Amino acid sequence: MAQKMVVSKSTVVLAVLMMLAIVAATSSLTMAHHEACCNGCACTKSIPPQCRCADIKDHCHSECKSCLCTRSLPPQCRCADVNDFCYPKC
User: Fold this and answer.
1) How confident is the model at residue 22 (pLDDT cuts 50, 70, 90)?
2) Is 83 left (phi over 0), alpha (psi -120 to 50) or beta?
3) 69 secondary structure, DSSP code
4) How far apart are CA 21 and CA 71, in angstroms?
């Protein structure tokens, strides 16, 4: 005997909202956002200096070539680029 599965409207709405949140988060991982800026930049004393931004946000700035993000919601991203300068503060 087959059993009927009863699903409430609120369960369906919640599932749809969760799927939309996942789509929005994963699409933002592949897109660059915002102007290049960094509040936590650290540089070595070498010549030329090697500078890295330590900011963790839900996106990477537009100039980032190597963005590392978690798969959490919201994602936690940081730019892994090493430059010979620091971007201006956000």
Assistant:
1) low
2) beta
3) E
4) 12
Domain ranges of the chain: 41-83
pLDDT tens, 55-87? 999 999 888 999 999 999 999 999 999 999 999
Q: Is 34 left (phi over 0), alpha (psi -120 to 50) or beta?
A: left
C-alpha torsion sign, points 47, 86, 39, 70: negative
Q: Is 62 helix (H, G, I), strand (E, B) or coil?
A: coil
Q: Which CATH number describes the domain made up of 41-83?
A: 2.10.69.10
The pLDDT tens digits of the residues spanning 30-61 come to 444 468 899 999 999 999 999 999 999 999 98
Half-sphere exposure (Cβ direction) of 65: Cα atoms closer than 13 Å:
4
